Automatic annotation (TrEMBL):
Biased composition (Basic and acidic residues): 774-785
Segments in the Cytoplasmic topological domain: 1-673, 719-813
InterPro entries: G_GB1_RHD3_dom (IPR030386), P-loop_NTPase (IPR027417), RHD3/Sey1 (IPR008803), Sey1/RHD3-like_3HB (IPR046758)
Example GO biological process: endoplasmic reticulum membrane fusion
HAMAP family reported in the protein's UniProt record: Sey1
Protein name: Dynamin-like GTPase that mediates homotypic ER fusion
Binding-site residues for GTP, renumbered to this chain: G67, S68, Q69, S70, T71, G72, K73, S74
Species annotation: Geranomyces variabilis
Region of interest: Disordered: 1-25, 761-786, 794-813
């Protein structure tokens, strides 16, 4: 794009010192290198704030000037670029430019360097600074204006050819690499008369330069290199400024066009000359070059560029990273509190990309290799910071997903263990999808983070929980089944054994078989809900069957402790002996056949004991899988061993005999009781008194009242206490009588006991009650004590028996 070429006459360089009153970017000059060879720390500030050129990226140019002292260098630069460098006072002829000055061209992004002239009188013969400044100019400027008088052309020393030779040599050694951008050497011939055409002068100079190049000590690998490999030459002549001011002005104007007008065929700032240093990095670059030159370090230009790129990229990276870190730090606290941040991945990804973009905006202008390396480094640095968050997120996610799994499973179960496998799978799938979705979304796209290990750990744990839940649910199902089996077996077996029908074992096994069938159906159905394999179902069913078998055995065994067997035998015996065929309690009278019913009852009980001795069902009734089980014990069918059976029969026989004796005694009591009482009353009262009582209304009333009181005592259940009192009174009375009369009271006591037994029998036959022993040992039953009245019908017979047995077992223990 063409730039406007400002009118030279408008430029602020007319004064002797070139200063103008109004300050513009071009007016701001900086001594980039001072006389003490120190590089100014202010250059970046000037680039940014005074020249406004720091943000131009690559879109700027650098031009420097080289030449003998007081050859009008500053004048030329001011004329061409509108700068404000000091120009020597015509009168004093003192050196004006000390060190290296920098300024910006007016109306163009061109950095202009005014370099102290060679052959500096003040520095004497010391060419050190001249070489350094010349080398510096060649290293950093795209265009080096070589300013010389026309009459210096062809003069080796006058044209600074010796100095150039040294500079070329060091430059070649230190800074030039294959592919380095070329530098333009722009020879401006001052006080050009035109007598010798510029082309001829150019040819002379070119020849001189090539000769110099040929004489250089070239470093290895560059022996065959040509000067044109590193430099391009331009030539221009400027007429005498004092003697031909108009021509000077015109030619200067033309020359200016070659620096400003990009459309000009002779435009000087060709891209090939650009050093590819971004404007904001130029101060560091220039300083680094200067430092290396001053300290004479053996560094080449590309290395310098890399150093600069590293320095700048590090700086850019730091700024971009700080911004990035500031953005992401808010997530740390939340993650450490255990939260799962669903948007973490998306948001951090955004900050990550923004940071890279910021880095690219400035960093991409620097050495590509270094930039790419630093970019990767930057990405790695951010990824490392984010990976910490990623791991924390996965940890939180792990817990959260497990909770989700537990919650969802609990919701689905809600006390119902059916279809457990389906509910478990759905819950697990939900938790795993949740985990995968968040874990994937948290990943940084650029990073190759591997969350597989974390996910595998999560899956292991969820499987452990699932297994545990399955065991628990299965336990509940099997527990319910156990209850069902227990309920279905224990009570019916107990009832059947109490009833003791002849086919008791067959009926028990029918119960067992039906229970097993129901349980197997239920278990198979439940296990199908657990997605159990066929073999697992088979094993569980087999286990259940054998447990049921063991339960039945245990139940039978518990029903055949001695006390229970004796109880059943006694019950069977009493059923026959003490009750008639209609279930009415017998009252034995004189002349009744006691022996017959006794023998029949005893035989019946004996038959029952035989029935109980051994489980009597064919093995074919049994489930084959139980019989085939290695734990199956064939002796399990023997319930009572012969010795135990015999022992029980003996014990029962004794009890039966006692009952028989009691029955016999009750007949005697029934016969003796009333006549003795009558005669006793007659003896006590006498016939006359008896008649007197009956004839006396008061006595009759007293007798009636006594009868009523007796009836009331009987009705209120106070009989025993009253009898006890009466017994004690009678006993005491008898004792007193005995003591006083010396008579035996045996008969009186015997009669009294007989009367008491008679009363008990009378009670059992005349009242709808059933005598139940209370807290008594069976062998002591016949003592006649501790009898409790329980209304008949309050318990079933089996229940009554069970109750009696229970009390008896308690007594036994
Ligand atoms: N003969 C002649 N003199 C010039 C020309 N241009 C400038 N001068 C004069 O030369 C003197 C030195 O000019 P400067 O521009 O200061 O020269 P310089 O090379 O920058 O001087 P230093 O910075 O001191 O090395 C001044 O007095 C100018 O007027 C020119 O084209 N021809």
């Amino acid at each position: 794009m063409s730039q406007t070429v400002p009118d030279i006459d408008q430029l602020p360089n007319a004064s002797a010192n070139g200063r103008e009153s109004s300050v513009t970017p071009a007016d701001a000059r900086l001594q980039a290198v001072n006389e003490a060879q120190e590089f100014s720390p202010d250059m970046l500030d000037y680039m940014k704030n005074k020249w406004n050129i720091a943000n131009r990226g690559f879109d700027y140019n650098v031009v420097a000037v080289f030449g003998s002292q007081s050859t009008g260098k500053s004048t030329l630069l001011n004329r061409l670029f509108g700068t404000n460098f000091d120009v020597m006072d015509e009168v004093s002829r003192q050196q004006t430019t000390k060190g290296i000055w920098a300024s910006k061209a007016r109306d163009a992004d061109v950095l202009v360097l005014d370099v102290e002239g060679t052959d500096g009188r003040e520095r004497g013969e010391d060419q050190d600074f001249e070489r350094k400044s010349a080398l510096f100019s060649i290293a950093i400027a795209e265009v080096l204006i070589v300013n010389m008088w026309e009459n210096q052309v062809g003069l080796y020393n006058g044209a600074n050819m010796g100095l150039l030779k040294t500079v070329f040599e060091v430059n070649l050694q230190l800074f030039q690499q294959k592919g380095s951008p070329k530098t333009c050497l722009f020879f401006v011939i001052r006080d050009f008369t035109g007598v010798t055409p510029i082309e001829n002068l150019a040819a002379t100079l070119t020849k001189d330069l090539e000769r110099i190049w040929a004489g250089l000590n070239k470093p290895p690998g560059k022996e065959a290199s040509l000067i044109s490999d590193f430099f391009e030459f331009n030539f221009a002549g400027l007429p005498h400024k004092v003697y031909a001011p108009e021509n000077f002005k015109n030619e200067a104007e033309k020359l200016k066009g070659r620096f400003y007008d990009r459309q000009n065929p002779a435009y000087t700032f060709k891209p090939a000359f650009h050093k590819h240093i971004p404007a904001d990095g130029f101060p560091q670059f220039a300083e680094a070059i200067w430092e290396k030159i001053v300290t004479n370090r053996d560094l080449d230009l590309p290395t310098q560029q890399q150093l600069l790129a590293q320095y700048r990229c590090d700086e850019i990276m730091r700024v971009a990273y700080d911004t990035f870190a500031e953005h992401i730090k808010k997530y740390r606290v939340q993650l450490e509190s255990g939260k799962v941040l669903e948007g973490l991945g998306k948001e951090t990804q955004q900050y990550y990309l923004e940071a890279i973009e910021a880095f690219d905006a400035d960093g991409s202008r620097y050495n590509k290799e270094v930039y790419q390396k630093k970019r990767a480094e930057f990405k790695e640095k951010m990824a490392t910071a984010l990976h910490v968050y990623y791991v924390q997120q996965l940890r939180n996610l792990h817990k959260s997903a497990l909770n989700l799994f537990n919650e969802r499973l609990a919701e689905r179960m809600k006390g119902d263990d059916s279809e457990f496998a389906r509910k478990l799978n759905e819950s697990r799938q939900e938790a795993m999808s949740y985990y995968s979705r968040i874990a994937e979304a948290t990943k940084l796209h650029d990073a190759d983070w591997d969350g597989d290990e974390y996910q595998a750990q999560f899956e292991i744990e969820i499987e452990e929980i699932a297994t545990q839940k399955r065991i628990e649910a299965m336990g509940r199902v099997l527990g319910k089944l156990d209850s069902f089996i227990t309920q279905s077996l224990v009570e019916p077996i107990e009832v059947l054994l109490n009833e003791g029908p002849n086919d008791v074992w067959k009926r028990i096994f029918v119960v067992f078989r039906e229970t097993l069938a129901s349980a197997e159906r239920e278990l198979s159905k439940q296990l199908a809900g657990f997605e159990s394999s066929d073999s697992e179902i088979t094993a569980q069913v087999q286990k259940m069957k054998f447990q049921a078998w063991e339960l039945m055995q245990k139940t039978i065994k518990s029903e055949f402790v001695d006390v229970k067997v004796l109880e059943r035998l006694r019950h069977r015996f009493e059923q026959k002996f003490r009750y008639d065929s209609d279930g009415i309690p017998r009252v034995w009278s004189a002349g009744d056949d006691i022996d017959g019913p006794f023998s029949a009852a005893r035989d019946d009980a004996d038959a029952l004991s035989q029935l109980y001795a051994k489980i009597n069902v064919p093995e074919s009734e049994l489930d084959p899988s139980i019989v085939e089980d290695e734990r199956f014990d064939p002796n399990a069918f023997v319930v009572l061993s012969p010795a135990r059976l015999q022992n029980l029969r003996d014990r029962f026989k004794r009890e039966a005999d006692l009952l028989f004796v009691e029955a016999k005694r009750s007949i005697v009591t029934n016969q003796v009781g009333p006549s003795k009482i009558f005669y006793l009353a007659l003896c006590v009262l006498g016939w006359n008194e008896l008649l007197a009582v009956l004839s006396n209304p008061y006595l009759t009333l007293a007798a009636l009242l006594s009868a009523v009181a007796g009836y009331a005592i009987w009705r209120t259940g106070m009989t025993r206490p009253v009898l006890n009192v009466a017994r004690a009174t009678l006993k005491e009375t008898a004792t007193q009588i005995s003591e006083r009369t010396g008579l035996s009271i045996e008969g009186v006591v015997t009669n009294f006991r007989a009367g008491a037994v008679g009363q008990r029998l009378e009670r059992s036959t005349s009242h709808p009650s059933f005598p139940v022993r209370k807290g008594r040992d069976l062998n002591r039953e016949h003592s006649g004590d501790e009898v409790e009245m329980v209304p008949a019908g309050r318990m079933s017979e089996g229940g009554l028996l069970a109750d009696r047995r229970r009390r008896a077992v308690q007594d036994e223990y």
